Amino acid sequence: MNLTYLALETRRALRSPRALVFTVGMPVLYYFIFSGIWGSGEVGGINAKTALMSSMAAFGAMMGTMFTGARTAQERAVGWQRQLRLTPLTPVQYLLGKGIVGMLVGLIPVLLVSIVGGIDGASLSAGGWVQLVLGVWLSAIPFAVLGLLIGQLATPDTIPVFTMVPMLLCGFLGGLWIPIAIFPHWLGQVAKALPSYWMADIGHGAVGHGSANLGAAAGVLAAWAIVLGALVMLRYRRDAARG
Amino acid sequence: MRTKTDTVRGAAISLDGLAKKYGEVQAVQQVDLLIAPGEVVALLGPNGAGKSTTVDMLLGLSTPDTGEVSVFGRKPGKAVAEGLIGAMLQEGSLLEDATVAETVRLVHSLHRHPMPVEEALRRAGVAELADRRCTKLSGGQKQRVRFAVALVCDPDLLVLDEPTAAMDVGTRREFWRSMHEFTAAGKTVLFATHYLDEAEEFADRVVLMRSGRVVADGSVAEVRSAASGRTIKAVVPGADEGQLAALRGVSAASLRGDRAELACADSDLAIRELLARFGNAHDIEINAVGLEEAFLALTTEEETA
């Protein structure tokens, strides 16, 4: 992997304060709003705030990775991607670089929410913290790839629609905002096909809220990453021509 | 300097029977073009003539429906990967949130045998803009930065799609001056342009495209004489096309009803001849012709001669 390319991509991602505040700040803001509403109640024997922390970490990882990838639509629109195709940079290297940067950006909200939650009184074992930060972060890989796919499909004007719809669907149905226990049975089954459900499951497992099925989670998340990754490659190869 | 013995052999660019369709639109049909190393070729033509589509296929950005493209004996993708081609595409294509130096350095880092970043910046005349964000550049400055991006891989072939479109006259002159430094080293250039003066001043050879075809291909000297031609339009009762075309000073004639259109190499002579032969000619107009018409008239004449 070309380090100059990665370094520049990372710098560029961090240079966009508006996008960063949105993806990094929102989960933290939500944490404070919801924890203010729920107070220090308990959900299934777990401190509500702690459960919220894990949900918001997952939400932040999802947004951070997806939005970063989706921004690729802008450089595609101005023709920069075509310019890069005229270098030895291969499609895999290009997309991998973008995906890595998306994952780096996605790590920021996970860390931030965890730190805020920890200061706010969440108490986890060392293993719990590792599973929360590392597990939630890694389970955002399908969303980093989804972001890239959106970036290859959307125009700068349609980025908001392309990102908000999957984000809201995955957020709600995955149980990031409301527990899927209150869903009708069939909807609960649908939820289990979504990457966000397993992402949340890993997070909830980390804070002792239910037990995460790590094997199933890894399987579903990997399947999403592979299918989406194949679609991105297909689309990238087809999109070389103008317009 | 790296040596590329392979590149000396054969053509720099070879397009053979190229055709490309976008939906129902036949953007390019049956384009054949052979460009030798060291040639500087202008690709002229109106919008929609197929210039950009041809350039895209040449660069491997799109695949021809039929036909073969080869650049220095290689498939376009391979030539690109080897850093043999530098290109300035038609669209904006600069990162808005990166500086000039970052942009050029990135492309530099991707190639295997690039020239130093500083040299590319200097040759494109943007050394003093190195730390500027690409959003804070004028149109002409952007074009020069894109030139630096095209140059930094130290290519043997430069492909420029309307390189001076956003430049004022002064910047344009400066741009071509920096291009001279490139061609003086015997490198090959293909550039698409709308400006006749650029083609005249800079190219060895001019290729004219229209409706997806190469309709004329000739030296600059031919273009120059063609561009100095004029057309005479007049109502000439009782004339036929053969008689009109045979008039001295006329290179081609067409007749629709009584309305004649004469492409002239020497319009002064032609009008005297016309009035001497056809005293009843009226509604006479004499116009300097556009490059395309003149060039076409010239090449048509050559073909029939």
How would you characterize the overall build of this protein?
The complex is a heterodimer of chains A (243) and B (305). Chain A is built from 12 helices and 2 strands. Chain A has helices at 3-14, 17-38, 48-70, 72-77, 80-85, 91-119, 126-138, 141-153, 159-173, 185-191, 195-206, 214-238; strands at 42-43, 46-47. Chain A has a two-stranded antiparallel ribbon with strand order 1-2. Chain B is an alpha/beta fold and 305 residues long. Chain B has 2 domains: 5-219, Rossmann fold, CATH 3.40.50.300; 230-288, Alpha-Beta Plaits (2-Layer Sandwich). In chain B, 36% of the residues lie in helices and 28% in strands. Chain B has helices spanning 5-8, 51-59, 76-81, 100-110, 117-123, 139-151, 169-183, 196-202, 220-227, 241-246, 267-277, 291-304; strands at 13-22, 25-35, 40-44, 66-71, 85-88, 157-161, 188-193, 205-210, 213-219, 230-235, 250-256, 259-264, 282-288. In chain B, the strands form 3 sheets. In chain B, strands 5-6-7-3-8-9 form a 6-stranded mixed β-sheet, sandwiched between helices. Mean pLDDT of chain B is 85; it is low at 1-8 and 301-305.
List descriptors:
heterodimer, A: 243 residues, two-stranded antiparallel ribbon, 2 strands, B: 305 residues, alpha/beta, Alpha-Beta Plaits, 2 domains, 6-stranded mixed sheet, 12 helices, disordered C terminus
Topology at a glance:
The complex is a heterodimer of chains A (243) and B (305).
Chain A: H1 3-14, H2 17-38, E1 42-43, E2 46-47, H3 48-70, H4 72-77, H5 80-85, H6 91-119, H7 126-138, H8 141-153, H9 159-173, H10 185-191, H11 195-206, H12 214-238
Antiparallel strand pairs in A: 1-2
Chain B: H1 5-8, E1 13-22, E2 25-35, E3 40-44, H2 51-59, E4 66-71, H3 76-81, E5 85-88, H4 100-110, H5 117-123, H6 139-151, E6 157-161, H7 169-183, E7 188-193, H8 196-202, E8 205-210, E9 213-219, H9 220-227, E10 230-235, H10 241-246, E11 250-256, E12 259-264, H11 267-277, E13 282-288, H12 291-304
Parallel strand pairs in B: 3-7, 3-8, 5-6, 6-7
Antiparallel strand pairs in B: 1-2, 1-4, 8-9, 10-12, 10-13, 11-12
Helix pairs in contact in B: 5-6, 9-12
